[in-house]
Design brief:
With 290 residues, the protein is an alpha+beta fold. The chain folds into two domains: 169 residues, Jelly Rolls (Sandwich); 102 residues, Homeodomain-like (Arc Repressor Mutant, subunit A). 46% of the residues lie in helices and 20% in strands. It is built from eleven helices and ten strands. The strands form three sheets. A five-stranded antiparallel β-sheet has the order 3-9-4-7-10. A hairpin with a 2-residue loop joins strand 1 and strand 2.
Length: 290
């Protein structure tokens, strides 16, 4: 069975056996919203048009030629609820196992990036020349990523290595930390509260009462900010945590319990609705069918 994450209308990692995926796009009009995460690394380059970006509990102003690196299972996305004009970006998705292979025994790339990402260093600056070179690489990779020819794929892996080399140079060359900002203080605080408590029973009325706001204000503003309703966001976080837990040797019932689902049947129903497949099928796919 095929599994793919749909993000803002984009079918991420649409091929079941995909080890990588690249994309470059310009949108004349783009609606902000849709905090998400996935089980692979994302190397995102903002070229122009974006305003603020959320990663793992912090919101940062976007700058041109900015590189953001997201590890697996970290919530991220554009926030703020506004519509963007001339939004230009590109990204490369890589499976953790693919990232490890790209080091060719000379460098553990997964450890290299994780050591920086674990300390909250997600944002980096790309020199103009490297940003343009990365753009062309993403265009070339995306144009040929679905071609089965072995030599075509070999060339694409060469392009991916060139891309990652420039990413590593940007990581090493960025010295000044980018300061976080806040868009809509109350809703940001609500988001953080949900992130800390989504495995617990949560009710809309209780959250509104805790932050001294009305239920209608909470519902409207949260959806505008995060791109999902409060209920859908909580459910999404639980399913994503379940996906992460499925990569361990936990039993399915333990995965359901630790991910915040009150009953096993609800877990199965929610997981299938959001991913298009059963939990045991996802586990088998991500373990390589073993």
């Amino acid at each position: 069975m095929k599994f793919a994450e749909t993000i803002n209308g984009y079918n991420a990692m649409g091929r079941e056996d995909a080890e990588y995926e690249a994309c470059y796009a310009i949108a004349e009009h783009h609606t902000v919203g849709g905090l998400h995460c996935h089980d692979f690394y994302e190397f995102y380059i903002h070229y122009q048009g974006g305003k603020v970006y959320y990663v793992d509990g912090s919101v940062f102003p976007l700058q041109n030629n900015q590189l953001i690196i997201m590890p697996p299972f970290r919530m991220h996305g554009l926030v703020g609820g506004s519509s963007l004009q001339h939004y230009e970006r590109g990204f490369l998705y890589l499976r953790p196992e693919t990232l490890r292979k790209l080091g060719f025994g000379q460098i553990d790339l997964q450890r290299y990036f994780d050591s920086r990402l674990q300390s909250g260093k997600f944002y980096y600056e790309l020199p103009q020349a490297d940003a343009l070179a990365c753009k062309q690489l993403l265009i070339d990779i995306s144009a040929q990523q679905d071609m089965p020819d072995e030599m075509v794929q070999f060339r694409n892996y060469g392009r991916i290595i060139d891309f990652i080399v420039m990413v590593c140079q940007a990581v090493q060359g960025t010295t000044a930390p980018i300061q976080p900002s806040v868009v809509n203080d109350v809703i940001f605080d609500v988001l953080q509260y949900i992130n800390d408590h989504f495995t617990e029973p949560l009710k809309l009325e209780d959250i509104a009462r805790r932050f001294a706001i009305s239920v209608s204000y909470l519902s409207h503003e949260f959806t505008s900010y995060a791109g999902r309703s409060v209920y859908e966001y909580i459910l999404y976080r639980r399913v994503q945590l379940a996906k992460e837990n499925l990569l361990t040797d936990m039993s399915l019932s333990e995965v359901a319990d630790r991910s915040g689902f009150g009953d096993y049947s609800g877990f199965l129903r929610s997981f299938r609705r959001m991913t298009g497949m059963a939990p045991n099928a996802y586990r088998k796919q991500r373990s390589g069918g073993h």
